[in-house]
Amino acid sequence: MLHQQERPLSIGSAVQFTHWGKTIHGHLLQRQGRRRFAKVIDTEERTWNVPEAALKHSGGERRPTIVTRHDKARADYRVGDEVAFTGRDGPKRGEIVKLNPKRAKVRCEGTCWNVPYGLLRRAGGESARNGAERLNDVAGMARRLMEEHGLLDWTLAFVEAKRRLGDCHYRDCVIRISRAHALQGSEEQIRDTVLHEIAHAIAGPEAGHGPLWKATARRIGAMPRAKSYESQAS
Q1: Smallest Cα–Cα separation from 156: which of 27, 22, 3?
Q2: Looking at residues 22-35, what average pLDDT do you find?
Q3: pTM of this structure
Q4: How many other C-beta atoms are found inside a 10 Å radius of the C-beta of residue 136?
């Protein structure tokens, strides 16, 4: 039997690391590829880039759903939105050209500004889209489906994705849903996406989109099709 500290870390695992002699507690949010760094979200919702080798299990509860405050703040905006904010030299108004994790890139009269979402407001008195509420609703629905089908030790997260609606990472035990799809898709479409990825988790990495996966998808109520979806064994 493996001791707790020997269990492999996966997305949502409760972790700790040391920073300037202080122990920081949080949850594993994201791995960052070949650099062997990981992104951790701490108890105050701050994010840290930490070498994976420096992380240890903290003994805390796994975080079953990861929706950060930045996810919620960003959810009310789209590329092309007209927004207003106050810069160093006074009020500004421009168009969002990119949505980064913590800041929006806003073009104002040929100059681009990186503006925290908390400082933005919709120009022209337009009302908010209630994107945070929508993300919470989608997360709740997805979490219920995951638990219904036995994925109690898996984590749900959202991801920036333009070419896929969702993905399933077996090593990290995480199902990720495209943030844009969660905000703009219909309830029926999003439910099918979640069930599609649950079918991947149940069928396993060797199944691909083959007969076993298709049979599993049909059994749990997903459309057995591969278009616009992706599963990853990494």
Answers
A1: 27
A2: 83
A3: 0.77
A4: 16
